[in-house]
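hey all, quick one before standup. I had two proteins in the batch that finished overnight and I want to keep them in one place so we stop losing track of which output belongs to which input. First protein below, input sequence then structure tokens straight from the run.
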Amino acid sequence: MPTWQTRTPVEQSITDRRARELTSLPIASPELELLTPTDDERAPEVSIVVPALNEELTITEFVRWCHQGLANAGVAGEILIIDSSTDETPQRAVAAGARVLRAPKRGLGRAYIDAIPYIRGRYVIMGDADCTYDFRQLEPFVERLRAGDEFVMGSRYRGFIESGSMPLHHRYVGTPATTWILNRVYSSKFSDIHCGMRGLTLDALKRMHLESQSWEYASEMVLKSVHLELQTGEVPVRFLKDREGRVSHHRRMGWSSPFRAAWVNMRAMFVYGADFFVFGPGCLLLLLGLLLMLPVTFGAVTVGPVTFSLTSQFIGAMLAVLGLQGVFLGCLAKIFFDYTGRRTGRIMPWFRYTRAAFVSSAIFIVGLALTIPLVVRYFQNDLSLPEISITNHLAVTGLFLMVAGFSIFVFTLLIHAATIATGRGSYE
């Protein structure tokens, strides 16, 4: 088990500030106005939380669907619409029996952040207010949440997709491709990461500490559900085409809107999964580099028709240095996105300060000892190296060890700084 070091006043101050940031939640803003219906549910178990922007064509029927879905599931619930409309959407929503949180227009992600202080239910179900997701079928979400799941994704591919509801390139290329990429990066098993209908516990929503202001909130939720190691489920949903006369938000924003949304979602996937791109490849490069470099430390080695000489040793050293940096950067990324503390607990014992200082110093000294004979020979030969000998090979390995020793020490400093900055203390 890790042994925690007593924090200095400065470290304690940073840790306390970070803790306040992590535990603080959005508070009611004077910019927001809550409208409540006359038949408001007093003790909801489920909160249906949905942003809306100029959805007067569908909002009344959508709220009715929600009430029907709650009744079918046998659960008391509220409907909370986060509205930034300029039409009759809020008035119609309240008349149909929904709570409406009037908010400035500032993005889908921000709408959910604004809504958190107003959510009263234990479970939260999200979606769109355009009647494309069938909210009459809430029972599968409620069942999974009551059974203990903390995050439940809807899946159009395991449910029903009405003809004409999705552009063909979205249905057969975009969504399957990005879902496949996310599952590879995060070792997850989602079948439809862009499904807008999803459920989670209010506690999980708060722990996610959403930061995305726009479309990428959807990917951020999925990614953080993995980082938080939430108990996750998936249920089939029905996806329907837009009602006659309604223009989707993507079409309202122009032909490039879907591509901009895809770009910001991919950015979120890659940033939150940065360790995937450096840690694994770094391990492979480090191993390959050592295999090319170490056997040639005492001279050229011939294996069958292939001779590994000083050139291949230089290549191996370069790959090993690059791989070592990848491993270190990957460890830092793992700590930055470690919302449970488990990854930090696994990594930090390898880099206790005192141990790392001695190990890095020993590696550096060994490397220096291997390099000195070449330096001596260089000066003895009037600042020249007329021929390649064993001292050249020893020096290449020595230079790598010097770089590795210095890198280990610097990385130890950085990783301890990272644990302090993220509020996870410091190891001895």
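OK second protein, same deal, sequence then tokens:
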Amino acid sequence: MNANPDSPPKVSEASAEYLRGLAPLQPSPQDQLDFLTSIQRVFDEGEFTATYKFALLVALTELAVERGADENRPLLLRTQWIAEKFAELYWPQTVQYSTGAAGTMPAILAQNLGKTARVVTVLTNLRLSTGASSVAAARRSEAWASALREIDATVRTQPLKYLQNVGGTSIPFLYRFTEESGCIELQPGVAFNLRRFQGLIHQIARAGWVRHVRENPRNGGVIGEAGDLEAFMFGLARASLEPARDFLAKLQSRRCFYCKESIGAAGEVDHFVPWSKYPRDLAHNFVLAHAACNRSKSDMLAGLAHLEHWCQRNAEYGETIGGELGERGFLVDSECSLVVARWAYRQAVGTGAHAWTMSARLEPIGPEYLAALR
């Protein structure tokens, strides 16, 4: 690791070329196609004896969204940031899984073909020793730093070292990495491609992760023939958002965030930037809406008036939201919520997408949306 983890890592020659204006601003269409072909080879030809590689692909994609840009430049990432993503991803899987079906018994799901995955062991011990019910609560414990160091070491010695091994050969198309550096450098254009194809990579990686767990012989007596593994493994259940409901109702004067009508005792917690586009439960991304409005909006981005309202709300009440929902166990990172929104709407502008305004009404997403997010 670097002696000072807060000091910037050395800039590579690839980064220097970009800064000198010697590299193209964005990957060419052929470069993007080559990238997808290489990703496909990782899934088709890479060896997946554990789920770490799936988690690493998800983590790198999220970090590219949160810390990268739509440019051709390399991107330096600290392995500690990747370790934090691993903690988020594996935390829901540190409790016993149970279908209640005959012939099965509750157990923590096996994530590899050998002994218990080290990351799961570290997080399980952290959960038990701190009594934390969420990764956000675990972050506030004195034991967090030590657990994160162990996860960081595991990430550096295992998935980061082997993810790019394809067909018996190392093909470093994603990043440059030395185990001792405490950093990786995404190759030129990789951050751009991870941001551009985030939805596709997430979907394939999570599907592969679920399949790996389901097909693991060690999980046969736990899973049986049924069970919604994806909801359990990645926290997709709506019920997990319930602790945010009462606070959001008070914050919104018991009115729907979208239609502004009285919400009464009903209402659903909605991800303003849809979960389908970015699956993280970030506190500042939550709003309370009528069930009908929530269903109508579905997986679409919200219209300009709603976006401006969301930005204004977070600017005025961001500290309160962070404090209240952080105490309820949700992840608090207002800057990350804003960066993710900028990424999502910028992607939408580039593809000519439309936003939901109300009921069945849509409007095109244009540059004015990006101006609202500045």
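Flagging for whoever picks this up: Residues 304-327 form the longest helix (24 residues). The chain has two domains: 13-234, 238-372.
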